[in-house]
What we know:
Elements lengths: L1 H42 L12 H4 L7 E6 L4 E5 L5 E2 L4 H13 L1 H7 L13 H10 L9 H10 L5 H16 L7 H10 L1 H12 L7 H12 L2 E2 L1 H12 L17 H11 L5 H8 L3 E3 L4 E6 L3 E6 L10 H13 L16
Antiparallel strand pairs: 1-2, 1-7, 3-4, 5-6, 6-7
The structure holds 6-diazenyl-5-OXO-L-norleucine.
Amino acid sequence: MVSRVRRQAAFSIALVAAAVALGLTLRAQSGVQAAVNAAFAKYQNLHEGKNADYIPALAKVNPNLFGIAVVTADGHLYTAGDLKTEVSIQSISKVFTMARVIQDQGPEAIEKRIGVDATGMRFNSIVSVEFAKKSLGGPEINPLVNPGAITATSMVQGKTADEVWAKIIGTHNDFAGRQLSVLQDVYKSESDTNQRNQAIGMLMYAYEYIKSNPAQATDLYTRQCSIGVNAKDLAVMAATLAFGGRNPVTGKQAISEKNVPYVLAVMATAGLYDDSGKWLYHTGLPAKSGVGGGIIAVSPGNFGIAVVSPPLDDAGNSIRAQRAIRDISTALNGNPYAAAGRKATAN
Ligand code: DON
């Protein structure tokens, strides 16, 4: 009799605990969704900025496209707006190709060959290469601007261009949790107009940063920039970086946990080009933009977020994406530098 009463009491306590936990989870979940909804409503009618047009296909993308997605540790997605329409990933791909090289060859491979300092110059600056060579005398570029990114692509190993491409697209697929494909109209448009990047590839070869065929590296780089992604794909990719390289939706380990901090560090210092400092000052979030209109940002251990909206500011960063991410992260205490409760623990 006594033990039945005890059992019933234990059962009731467990039930109450589960209900409280569920209530807390639901409240936390609705808080995330509320932040996403508020940012979407606030910026839906903001029409500042202009699509990139130096790649003709990008000028044709609907400037009203606006999608927001946040992914939390449990793989739950909180979304608003357009989650289906794909834009070209553009420079955001630089993060994942860099991650591939770090994973295969170690963090020092990127540091020694390319460098990890912000150039403070535009993403396609040739002056930055000359300056690094003549005045700094060493690898003082980084993998998130075009000269460093084309070099990083050249470092992905494979006997043929197809083998290299399989590794690049495979890495992007693992991060996104689905099979992505190239937007052929963007790839053609960019291939027809990327003479400046071809010149950068050749210059990086002349200065011995690139040690293999520079034309192949520039072509594969152009292809990786033309991969089609939607806001949801990008948020899952960001979340994979937020949770130690493990995709929280598929459970697949895309890169080792130990390599993630190197990737995030370069995103923090150079992810929004010459506006990276301003961005970090206000958000504390490692992030990366692309001229297709996407931005990803990572709150380590907390969430991954992405916004797609094509109109850009003068630095080449999506205006609505910057504002929406900043608001949502503030609402969710996303800034890792404001983590007052963290304690040091010895392993
Ligand atoms: O190489 C280029 O110019 C483009 N494929 C990528 C540039 C880019 O996304 C810069 N982003 N803000």
